[in-house]
Amino acid sequence: MQTLNNKSLLIIEPDPSLGRGISHALQDMFAEIQHIKNPMKAVAKLEIKRFDVIVCELCFQTMDGIPLIRLVRQKAPDTTILVLTSDLTQDIIAALEQCNAVVLEKPLNINKLKSSLAL
Fold first, then answer.
1. Residue 64, SS3 per DSSP
2. I need a labelling partner for 43 at 20 to 30 A (CA). Which of 28, 69, 71, 73 fits?
3. Over the stretch 30-71, which tens digit does the pLDDT of each residue have?
4. Are strands 53-57 and 102-105 parallel, antiparallel or unpaired?
């Protein structure tokens, strides 16, 4: 297993169970992990802190995921972004490719998530 001892991870995921599960699965790989459920709070956090990796849900009740990913990319141009979605269409794939984001389809496979973290 690759260790990213000096790296930080931000999880933007509204589902508390999934956020905790991702955090738990990756806890030995990162020096710091933060989980934020609200996408706007996550954007505010990116104003004051840089993260090396962001794992982000695509679907939120309060905002559309594509503009969120674009905003995250603007705030963190060098950050690795992994996007979780169960709604994978060609338009979504094209939009996420423009944002240089890695797409992981739900249900989430933790081994795929870990292998996508080859930084």
1. strand
2. 28
3. 999 999 999 999 999 999 999 999 999 999 888 888 999 999
4. unpaired
